[in-house]
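hi! just following up on the protien thing from before. the input was this:
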Amino acid sequence: MPNFSEFKAVKSGALATGLFDISMREINNNFAFVFNGQIECLKDGKYSFTISSDDGSQLFINGKMIVDNDGVHGIKAKAGSVELKKGKHDIEVKYFELAGGEALSVSWTGPGFKNKPLSKTAPKAGQVVEGMLIEPLKGEATIYRNFIDGAGPRAIGVGYHEGVNLAFDANNMRLAMIWHGDFIDGARHWIARGQGFQPPAGNDVIRLPEGLAIAELMTKDSAWPESEYRTKELEFDGYVLDKLQRPTFKYSRDEISITDKPVPVGSSFEEKPGVIRRTLKFVGKGNSTNLYLRLAQGNFKKDKDTFSNSELSLSVEGGEVFAEKGELRVPIEFNQGKSELKITYSWAE
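and the predicted 3d structure came back as:
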């Protein structure tokens, strides 16, 4: 980025549209702009800003750099976020063009609105933006419904403020992944409806079995049904949120209704990740038999009521877990038309 204090402006003035605009340039190479203005926030909250430019650009709010998209490059987008109070705030955008193509677009997202333009031009369709990390609010969970790598096209990601996260696959009614740390980067999908699957942004990712999560078997040692793109055995019925915005997933199988509520439990040790406790409740007519839940795949060692391998530890209340064909399974046993399982997922030490 040029040191603008060393240069004298060729022109200055106010933009009639109130939007950042480089179309009034008189040359197409070796030029730069510095835009100054104000934005007005109608609510306290987190605001995200995105700049797409060719060549370099930077965005400042109240004198602090929020997005750094500097350098000589083709069209590239970057984003950043900041907590702002209700009211007016200073905004500054710096931009330069060395040679070749030239472009600048700026937008912002905040409470109650999404991708509102601050420039005369908008980002190109399909453009991938770097650095739009989605984070849960303090004391609440956040939901991300989109294409998530490892959880499919009907994935529902949940980020908890306790620092644990999960992805639920609504095609097969399965807990697809759990991970620790950062939740997910929404830039791929939030800017101009980008395509592709977004992986988790955090670490310690544990992937759970693909395919149908609950199946009816002839016997406990029968082979598990082959994976389908979208199961016909179970029907997704949506989810409800509690006061902390944590979801309870709802689905059904024939005349059996199922609720599936995962909740985080934080660790008292900073260096040790928390755990996820999941409660599944089954309500159906009569006493259904031969239903099983597949928990995990791989080689596990049993120590009392806990099954562990190199990355995952599992324990279950309400059913007798057993290993079969490289899988951990638990029967769903009904008593007067009801059954309940409580499963704890933790990262292996």
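DSSP finds one helix and 28 strands in the chain.
The chain has a mean pLDDT of 87.
cheers
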